[in-house]
Amino acid sequence: MDAFTYVVLVTGGTGFLGRAVIRQLSQADYRVRTLMRPSRRSPELPAGIPIEVAISSLLDKRGVRAAMVGVKSVVHVAGAERSGLETALRAVDVEGTRVLVEAARQAGVSRLIYISHLGAEPSSAYPALRAKALAERSIRKSGVPYTIIRSSLIYGEGDRFTTSLAMMLGVSPGFFFLPGDANTAIQPIWVEDLATCVTWSLEEQAMIGQTYEVGGPEFLTLRRVVELVMQATGSRRWLVSASPLYLRGITWLIQRMLPSPPLTTFWFDYLASSRTASLDALPRIFGLKPSMMIDRLRYLGERNWTLEFIGRQLRWT
């Protein structure tokens, strides 16, 4: 079937991962529609790509149903982790997903792809991982054919991971605090690799009803990731171990003081323990050779991250 003959609805299309997914879908000749909540800010959509836009909150049942008209597939990447608020997670990730899948079921959608997190569990002590697991539960119970992709930390230009580290390094006075020994194992995955997996999943019937756990091609410690970011940005800082509880408290205060904080306390939740997948997941499941992190950080050397941090606080609305 010609991909352009039907609509793929992308939630979270103005976000970091959503923009990459839209680019990849467009390159594959899919007709793309994105669901955007009403906002006074100009949407950050990929430039030069034809996109249909449906304006609605995920909690607006009527608006979401209207956005489903003509839709065959849904790629659900919207989430509220950036807010740092547990109430937002319950509204967007949990209740918003429930509204979305009910509208998808009523519209006869034939495939829903959901991007979740490694470590998502309903009983998790961490709000973001618990919210993702509850969203997964709604999807599995909905009756809509689904594929769930549990991803490791995602990086790339415009992310909330490496760019946040770059900004914090930029404003750090000669030293940089790391939580504990910073030896938690993480498996960063390049955003374009994950977006490719999403696009390829849409037509794979064998992936219906499956949950996959994916990550990049290497296990790295947080300390090593920070070293790679310092190398890419030209920053030189003395890395100092500090109590995770102390750093969480400082982050909590900063989160409430700054208009656009680079990190939230959810970041510490994710790094509380090692969260990794099989190193061969992308080649084995998707036939894709994943990118090494050291080869994909050039974008970090293109900006003054101290000025970027200041600018984000001043222009935030």
Given this structure, which CATH class of the largest domain is correct?
Alpha Beta
**Through-space gap between termini:** 44 Å
Q: Count of DSSP helices?
A: 11
Show unreliable segments.
none
Radius of gyration: 19 Å
Class based on secondary structure composition and strand pairing: alpha/beta
- What value does the average pLDDT take? 91
Please tell me the CATH architecture of the largest domain by its name.
Answer: 3-Layer(aba) Sandwich
Secondary structure tally: strands: 13
Task: Tell me the strand order in the biggest sheet.
Answer: 3-2-1-4-5-6-11
CATH topology of the largest domain: Rossmann fold
Question: Please, what is the oligomeric state?
Answer: single chain
For the sheet with most strands, the description reads: 7 strands, parallel
When the domains are counted, the total is 2
Tell me the name of the CATH homologous superfamily of the largest domain. Answer: NAD(P)-binding Rossmann-like Domain
Fraction of residues in H or I helices: 25-40%
- Strand-residue fraction? 15-25%
Order of helices and strands: EHEEHEHEHEEHEEEHEEHEHHHH
Q: Describe the global form.
A: globular
Structural features, described:
This protein folds into two domains: 3-154 and 188-214, Rossmann fold (3-Layer(aba) Sandwich), CATH 3.40.50; 162-185 and 218-275 and 291-315, Alpha-Beta Complex (UDP-galactose 4-epimerase, domain 1), CATH 3.90.25. The longest helix is centred in the first third of the chain and has 22 residues, at 86-107. The model has no long low-confidence stretch (mean pLDDT 91). The strands form four sheets. It has a seven-stranded parallel beta sheet, with helices on both faces. A two-stranded parallel sheet has the order 7-10. 40% of the residues lie in helices and 18% in strands. The chain has 317 residues and is of the alpha/beta class. It has eleven helices and 13 strands.
